[in-house]
Amino acid sequence: MKRPLATKPAAIRKERSVLFSKFPPGQVPEASDVLAKLEHLEVEAHVERRSVDVAYDLREHSLEELETTLEDKGFHLDNTLLSKMMRALIYYVEETQLHNLDAPDRLLKKSQNEAYTHAWERHPHGDHDDTPPEWREYK
C-alpha cells in the first residue's frame, strides 16, 4: 500500500507597502537594505513614494514583525491616521489568519445541534403533555 506524500501547505502570499515619514530623509534605501537581508522576503524600494513594497509568506513573516524590526533599527514609519488604521487592520487580519491555521477543524453543525437538542429536552415547552399515555390513546 502506498502512503500519500507529505504535502507542504500552500503559501499564503502577502504583498504590502511599508510607508515612511518625511523626516529624516533617505530612509527608504536604508530600510530596503535591512529588509533585503531577511530570508524569504521580496523587497522593492520606491523612493518617490517613500515606501518599500514587500512580499512574503504569512507563515514566514508578518507585517507587524517587519515594521517592528524597522522601528527597532531607528526608522520612522508614516504615522498619519489612515496609515495607523490600515496598519492595525492588517495586523489583526494576519494574526487572525495565523490563529485560524492552527485551530483544529470543528464540526459546528453537529455540535450546535446537539447543544440545542439537550437544551430543548431540559427546557419546559409547549410540546410537553402531562396527560397519561392511556388517556391520550382513549377512543
Provide structural commentary.
This protein has 139 residues and is α+β, with helices and mostly antiparallel strands. The protein has a domain at 13-102: 2-Layer Sandwich (Alpha-Beta Plaits), CATH 3.30.70.100. The protein contains 5 helices and 3 strands. Strands 1-3-2 form a 3-stranded antiparallel sheet, covered by helices on one side. It is elongated. It starts with 12 loop residues before the first strand and ends with a helix. 11% of the residues are buried.
Question: Which fold name corresponds to the CATH topology of the domain at 13-102?
Answer: Alpha-Beta Plaits
Strand order of the largest sheet: 1-3-2
For the report, how would you describe the main beta sheet? 3 strands, antiparallel
Contiguous low-pLDDT stretches (5 residues minimum) are none
CATH top level of the domain at 13-102? Alpha Beta
User: Strand-and-helix sequence, N→C?
Assistant: EHEEHHHH
Please work out how many helical segments DSSP would assign.
Answer: 5
Strand content: 5-15%
Q: Count every beta strand, where a strand is a DSSP E run of 2 or more residues.
A: 3
Structural class: alpha+beta
- The second-level CATH architecture of the domain at 13-102 is 2-Layer Sandwich
Instruction: Write down the overall mean pLDDT.
Output: 86
Rg from alpha-carbon coordinates: 28 Å
Which outline best applies?
elongated
